[in-house]
Design brief:
The protein has one helix spanning 35-73. The chain is mostly helical and 93 residues long.
């Protein structure tokens, strides 16, 4: 064990590094013809879908905070109509 006989070099060759640049899972060389515009459109739609999702989530949080703030203040009546304002306009005397 101390002689290092246990640690023989492997007989399997080393795997070559990927030649792709950039490493996105596809290369622009493979996207010829109609495939490149389709990939661009797919990317743009994906970006806008993620942006719309984030905006919807942000609006929901804003509305929840606003409703929470309104609920906290509901105990204090601010502008309530008086009894004369509740009477009909065309009242016969």
């Amino acid at each position: 064990m101390e002689s290092g006989a246990v640690y023989n070099q492997t007989t399997e060759p080393e795997a070559k590094a990927s030649r792709r640049w950039p490493r996105f899972g596809f290369t622009l060389r493979r996207l010829w013809g109609w495939r490149l515009p389709v990939k661009v459109i797919q990317t743009v739609f994906g970006f806008f879908a993620a942006l719309a999702f984030a905006a919807e989530f942000g609006i929901e949080l804003f509305l929840k905070q606003k409703q929470k703030h309104v609920d906290e203040r509901s105990g204090k009546p601010g502008n309530t109509p008086s009894s004369t304002e509740n009477q009909p306009l065309n009242k016969k005397r």
